[in-house]
Fold this protein.
Amino acid sequence: IGQVVSSFNKMVEDLLESKREVEKSNEELRAARDSAEKRRNYIEVLVESLNVGIISLGADGEIVNLNKKAREFLELSPKDPPQKAVTLPSWVTLRDAIADLKKRPQQKKEILLTFRDEAKVVLAELIPLTREGISYPGSILIIEDITDLSRTQRIAAWQEVAQRLAHEIKNPLTPIRLSAQRIRKKLRDNAEDLNEAIYEGTTTIEREVESMMSMVNEFSRFARLPEIHLKSGSIADLVLAAALPYQNAYSKVSFSFNIPDNIPNILFDQEQIERVIKNLFENSIEAMKMSGEIRVSIFEKDKYVVISIKDTGPGIPQEIRTKMFLPYFSTKRKGTGLGLAIVARILEEHGGKIEVDNEYSEGAGLLIYLPR
């Protein structure tokens, strides 16, 4: 009997201990659930309070949820279901931006959203759902209203352009005016060398007008760059093809290439990028006075394919490196200052960029970054 009683008491103690462990586990579970609920509420409040639109997209691109700012962008009321956004005209623009951003992850795209009473300039970014290297279905679209910033930047840019245009037009006007005054004086005095004065004056006028026309045409090209059309292709093949005419035309300019076979195909507009490469080749050849070496290499770095173009010319002075890609900045006596600005703009449209290779000291070195 004593053994039975002892066994019973032991069983009771075990049951009580199990009960205490279950109760403790339940308390810990409740605490964890409360903590998770508080964290979820905090994140919801945080997301709702952000001054940028956040749209959660499912694996198939469907709208799962959106915050208050995104609803304002899309003109959705708080009671409207998220799926209603796809019926709105503004979603068509966003949908196209999403398709473009999927090709270029972690890039940002400036888009124009048109509403009933106004247009807004929006910066859109698509972020894949990943954590610790693991990818999850869906993505997050972040949209930020940069209308005021864009307007301010545009005003500042056009003020600079207007000042530069006024300066560039004023320069040839002076010799034109002087030539006209000289011809008028010769006519009034019935001078013997009148014909010579007319010939010299009209030659000067024609030359200066052609200079102005060249500047205006270049400005027109800059202001009306065509929209890029991205297609998958070999950037290595394009660079080699772009170099060939210069290799044939300039016997004292040598080209060397370091291009691995495993450079991946990327998305780019062939006509526009060819224009970029040829512009840089021409700059190098001119800087080297048509005699020297151009070294071209292509490699991968982070999320980019990088094209390095180096020459053996005089190099790029340190003081102009931060200004050389701005519109109308030029060190050439007859330069329009738009060549490198067009290059920079084309690369920006591709989600890329151009930089001076500060580590290269044997001449000028430029690095072209294109997303892969």
In short: The chain has a mean pLDDT of 82.
